[in-house]
Amino acid sequence: MTDHHGDPRHLETLDRDLERFSKLEGATAYIARPMVGPGISLVFVVLAGLAALVLFGQTNNALIVVVAACLGAYMALNIGANDVANNMGPAVGANALTMGGAIAIAVVFESAGALIAGGDVVSTIAKGIIAPESMGNAATFIWAMMAALLSAALWVNLATWVGAPVSTTHSVVGGVMGAGISAAGFAAVNWPTMSAIAASWVISPVLGGVIAALFLWLIKSRIIYRDDKIAAARVWVPILVAIMAGAFTAYLALKGLKRLISIDLSMALLLGVAVAAVVWIVMIPLIRKQSEGLENRNKSLKVLFGVPLVVSAALLSFAHGANDVANAVGPLAAIVQASQSGNFTEAVSIPFWVMVIGAFGISFGLFLFGPKLIRMVGNQITKLNPMRAYCVALSAAITVIVASWLGLPVSSTHIAVGGVFGVGFFREWDAERRIRKARLKMPDRPAFAPEERRRRKLVRRSHFMTIIAAWIITVPAAAALSAVIFYVIASFAGTV
Q1: pLDDT tens digits for 460-479?
Q2: In terms of DSSP H, where are the helices of 342-449?
Q3: First-residue to last-residue Cα distance in the chain
Q4: Closest CA to 92 of 318, 460, 385, 321
Q5: How open is the CA angle 152-350-174, to the nearest 5 degrees?
Q6: Is 59 helix (H, G, I), strand (E, B) or coil?
Q7: Half-sphere exposure of 421 (CA within 13 A, CB side)
Q8: Model pLDDT for residues 46-78, shown as the tens digit of each residue
Q9: Residue among 182, 252, 190 nearest 491 (CA)
Q10: Closest among 163, 128, 132, 168 to 152, alpha carbons compared
């Protein structure tokens, strides 16, 4: 017998077979990769349902609670995928944080915010949009809440897939309104509350944008455009960090710590001023030490804003976890209470296991699907550096305080994205202003061609239009979807 193993042709065939096999492995991995996220998400949703089954398996309406737990978990995943990008996007876009670092910080602080300071009591139906009495009975109320939860989650899922940062608060509001109208007619809706929410669509992003632009103007005029930038930074950076510390103290006192201690606006502002004063005194020697040996150029300034930016991203995540976890678990808690006791007109307290589903869901959603929108908010609307991203973070905290003072329901998504747009449009205006000044000094200098001026736009108009369109249709789309889902659930329930 002849031994083919030493035959070069045999070895070539073996090499080709191995190459084909490795290509097949590569193709399988490439196809399988997109399935990992949905696969893990499905496991989490099933585990949430099993947890509900273990806790409520022996009670009446156990199946309803299990289905509601699955829907709450699905909604929490979507909040993590879409909403959290607004807190982390600017820091990642400014290269102050890596994507991995941003996700790790957000997971820890979102979960801490949800579990430590998450909403203790949610009004029976989210934000008092529907009069619960109009529902007639507990079964109708439960179907309406389920429809609201599912429609909001589906809408946020679609928005994330398209790449539009939308408000999960507004998605839940739309879902509750649509199900309420479908269940009890237009009279059931609290229209004054709805009109205030509609007003916030415009006020939140505009206010966020204006405040972010004002801070960027302050940084440019007081530090960047000065002859000795480092000396200017030694004076102004401690003041700016103190403003941020004071704003976040007031913000967290108002929004994040409601469950732990009751604080009114004036008390929160006093706390903020006290913390700002302490931070300002502490930061003066720190910034002086940090700025030693830095060159007198803009790149050096980024070093001084890096740490404050990371801290602001962490604090925004904590406040977001405390505030927005109720969007995922508020309707779920209401379903649990109504199905267990039949009581659906009183305030709802959120059980701890429900909060855990919300906290873990937000973390998983962020980890699995967050990077797409983090990149979008951080890099693709306008170019951010640590100073610009710092202005966005600061405007988010201050806008929420102003809105609380005015009594307006606002969306953290709209504020943060509005801040990014504000910074971008301010830079465009500032660049145009400087070109005009230069032309006055040198009138014979040739003007830019229209194409060149368009190319120099610093905010991507396509993203601007996509996001604005998504914001406008969020409530009507979630409401329409919810009305259809409620009708299907109610018809099915009625026939069983």
Answers
A1: 888 888 888 888 899 999 99
A2: 352-375, 386-406, 412-441
A3: 75
A4: 385
A5: 20
A6: coil
A7: 22
A8: 999 998 888 877 777 788 889 999 999 999 999
A9: 182
A10: 168
